[in-house]
Amino acid sequence: MSRSLPPDPPLRPSSDGDGERILTELDAAGRDPAFPASMRGLLHQAAEALRTASADVQDAQMRYQALFHAVPDPVSVIAADGTVLDLNTAGMAAYRRPRSEVIGQPIHVLNPDLPCDHMAPVLEAVDRGETYVIEVSNMRVDGTRFPVEVHSAGFEHEGRRCVVAVARDLSRRREAEARYRDLLEVIDKGILIQDADGSLVHANTAALRMIGAQQGEPSPHGDGLFEHWMLLHADGSEMPMSAFPAMRALHEGHQVGGTLVGLYHRARRQLLWLSVTSIPHYAAGADRPEQVLSLLSDVTELKRDSALFDRVQLLASIGGWEWDRASGKLYLTDEAARILSGAQPPASMDSMADYLLPADRARLRQALDAVAGGTGFELDLQGLRGDGRPFWVRVIGESGTGVAGAARITGTLQDITVSKHGEQSLRVLARSDPLTGLLNRDAMLEEIASRLDAAGAAPVAVLYIDLDRFKLVNDVLGHAAGDSLLSVAADRLRASVGDQGLIARFGGDEFLVACVCGDDPGRPERLADAILDAFSVGFGFDKDEFVVTASIGIARSPQDGSDTQTLIQHADAAMYESKRRTRNGRLAYTPALAQSQRERLQFETQLRHATDNGEFHLVYQPQVELASGRVLGAEALIRWNNERLGEMRPDHFIAQAEGTGDIVRIGGWVLREACRQAAAWREQGLGIVRVAVNVSYRQLLGSDLTASVCSLLQEFDLPGAALELEFTERVLIEDAPETLGNFAALRALGVTLAIDDFGEGYSALNYLRRLPIQGLKLSQLFVAGVPGNQSDVAVCQAVAGIARSLGLGLVAEGIETEEQRRFLLELDVPVGQGFLFAPGLAPDELARRLRSPPPL
């Protein structure tokens, strides 16, 4: 009498009790004379190997526990969702909590100040193979806080991605830093601390006082700290920022001491002299400075002599003037005369005003009259020098005695031509997109607003343009190729629009065209068609060519909006609808389109809350043996019953859920409910009923599907064979390596895997051959046409042949007539489902069918 071994248990962690039971059974089987001697020997060897493995596991666990609890800093093991899985002895002491109060709780119980998405940057760093470091405040059980520096690294724990976090108490270091800061504030020497890029880390009170700033005022960059000052060498020549001692110390890597630096404040016409010593600081093991500390001493009194101040005045392009109102004579310093003419200086205020443009000439005369009344002035004026070159000057004037009606008016005159040209360049840059040279978002908003606000404004049209498939190029070829594509796209837009409208890059791959269409109502459509024609030609990269088309939405004032925001919003809505419908097209905004989008948003909102509101339920369509009618299993079909929308079938909402990402949560609910029902049928004495569940592609890649399935099978004590997962053909060609790994893990659980609606989509036979698929489902799209439609007959024959050649199971969907059943039987299709047998049934009705004998 022969005996067979029991089937392999499901893959799950075994307890010590399970191990002992298995060893006992192996020992008993090894002594059973019913087995051949060779088999008993193998069983004995298996038992010994299991004992050795168990001892090794116990030994490893003891070493882990010893090491884990020996670490003097708090150490916690955290799951990917932020749940604390383990805490060492030092952690319990630091947080003054027993381990039982922490394990299983979210990490916020220890770090209450963490943001909701705190695990995202940690997991990103771990995925890059890096250690994530952050300073936070931990909380003890009594609510007191203490600062810590947390180092986090990743590892796998029982098949799950986890993070081990080591927290170093920073309390003593913070106390030392506080004492250090107090010392910096009480000394009378200025101290600056800068990063390796020149960014300001700290400036003490003395340093801020020297440069005339308040706490919080200095720019965070090194050159911005002296934004209002001109740096000078000891000889009075201008010092570039790169020659400042701190920058030299960073660049040269050694101390730069005792350097005399002049600071000339342009606005206050104030000169300071500082002695600066800069010392670079290195991090441990670094070969370049990490920071630089500069010590400043005010030595202005030692350097104040008139000759040097005259030199500074020249270098700062500042000249002096004095006007004798009684005689009309004008006195200019050499620098002031050079700024105005470079040749014969003007001898009167009128002749000086002649160098100015007419409007600024009038402004100067008004200001001089005001000074006569005791009021000073400061003006930026534009003019032409004696040689015809344009210039800008800043003129400051006040009465010589500070008394109204004074006979003499004095002031300064500074050449600001370079800075004004710089301001104009900055204005252009501030309005331009740096990549394409088009207007940027802010500039376009201003331009549209100005056209809408103009008196008697003509209608304005906005074209909202989004590039189709740009993300694919950017992801496949990289950001450099994406930037190149955007630049070429901008050139095509310029060529298409010409001078008939303004063009802006509004966002990543989004562009805006604004045009006035009062005398030409059809201009927006013509421009849109020209743009679509320009994008009909592919974009070349090396030897490859990519087709990147455009979707365009059009909105007009005033009917589609009388303000900038509304007009753009409606053009965006029209673009979105155009992209949703066809892509590579244009669509004008209409109120009906807005209503449709509002309804779609309301639909999405209802769908998003449907799971929480308990609005979903499952029905089960029997899968029967076509020859006998015996029920072999059932497919779980979701139904949505909404109070406002009524009962809805999956084809009314599944595609929407796919688009919004809600399908992952809905799919998780379906899996749980199907497993719960399978367990309920088993408890009713119906045995294990295999339930087929449709799984979205987003579920496969957007969540840990294998872990979820494993957890559900364990929770409801079901074998893997109780569950069949059906996927669309998309999984056959996209992300094949990741799909292969997920499918292999699911097969290891005993779960059956099938491709749903095979033949409708990609039918990628090469991938079908490589993936561990066990079955195909013949789409009702083809079953509906047999046996009368020869094309459908050919497809059914082909799919049946593929299933036979690959050794795959085959289930036909949508069987509604007896003729279809007989035809499929002749094709050797063993299993089917459809209205011929039953629609989706309530769980109790399916249970009744399972108890009933099959029809003959």
UniProtKB/TrEMBL annotation:
SMART domains: EAL (SM00052), GGDEF (SM00267), PAC (SM00086), PAS (SM00091)
PAS domain location: 176-217
One Pfam entry name: PAS_8
Record-given protein name: EAL domain-containing protein
SUPFAM superfamilies registered for this protein in UniProt: EAL domain-like (SSF141868), Nucleotide cyclase (SSF55073), PYP-like sensor domain (PAS domain) (SSF55785)
Gene3D superfamilies named in the record: 3.30.70.270, EAL domain, PAS domain
InterPro entries reported for this sequence: Biofilm_reg_signaling, EAL_dom, EAL_sf, GGDEF_dom, Nucleotide_cyclase, PAC, PAS, PAS-assoc_C
Taxon lineage: Bacteria, Pseudomonadati, Pseudomonadota, Gammaproteobacteria, Lysobacterales
Chain segments carrying region Disordered: 1-20
GGDEF domain segment(s): 458-591
